[in-house]
Amino acid sequence: MSDSIIHASDESFEADVLQSEIPVLVDFYADWCAPCRRLAPVIDELAEEYEGDMRFVKVNVDDNASLAVQFGVQSIPTLIFFKGGQQVAKTVGAPPKPRIVQEIAQILAS
């Protein structure tokens, strides 16, 4: 796993995500989720490729259920993009890397 990925909790989410100076991609996942495990290496690659431009945060829904409820996560993996503390995009499922890159490019350009 990439060193540039932050594992957020209920307690740290505001500081890790909502107060971030740069856009944030939050990966809501669970250890037992097969699609989440398939997506993990893609998130690791993206975290290294966009280091300094975008923050990558993982939230384990089993350990932080209140965050999942707060952001309407009903299926995992769910990727939620934040900019300026506000949710700007949401993807449910494990999209291919080019689709995530496209979303990141749009958010960074806006």
Characteristics:
110 residues, alpha/beta, Glutaredoxin, five-stranded mixed β-sheet
Describe the structure in your own words:
The protein is an alpha/beta fold and 110 residues long. It has a single domain (5-109), classed as 3-Layer(aba) Sandwich (Glutaredoxin), CATH 3.40.30.10. 37% of the residues lie in helices and 25% in strands. It has 4 helices and 5 strands, in the order βαβαβαββα. The protein has helices at 13-18, 34-49, 65-70, 97-109, and strands at residues 5-7, 24-29, 55-60, 78-83, 86-92. Strands 1-3-2-4-5 form a 5-stranded mixed β-sheet. The radius of gyration is 12 Å and the shape is globular. The relative contact order is 0.23.
- As residue ranges, the low-confidence spans are none
Give the oligomer, counting copies of the same chain as homo and different chains as hetero: single chain
Order of helices and strands: EHEHEHEEH
Largest sheet: 5 strands, mixed
Percentage of residues in strands: 25-35%
Assigned CATH class: Alpha Beta
CATH topology heading: Glutaredoxin
CATH-defined superfamily: Glutaredoxin
Radius of gyration: 12 Å
Shape annotation: globular
Q: By helix and strand content, what is the structural category?
A: alpha/beta
- The helix tally amounts to 4
The main sheet orders its strands as 1-3-2-4-5
Q: Mean of residue pLDDT?
A: 95
- Terminal CA distance reads 29 Å
Q: Let me know the number of strands.
A: 5
**Tally of domains:** 1
CATH architecture: 3-Layer(aba) Sandwich
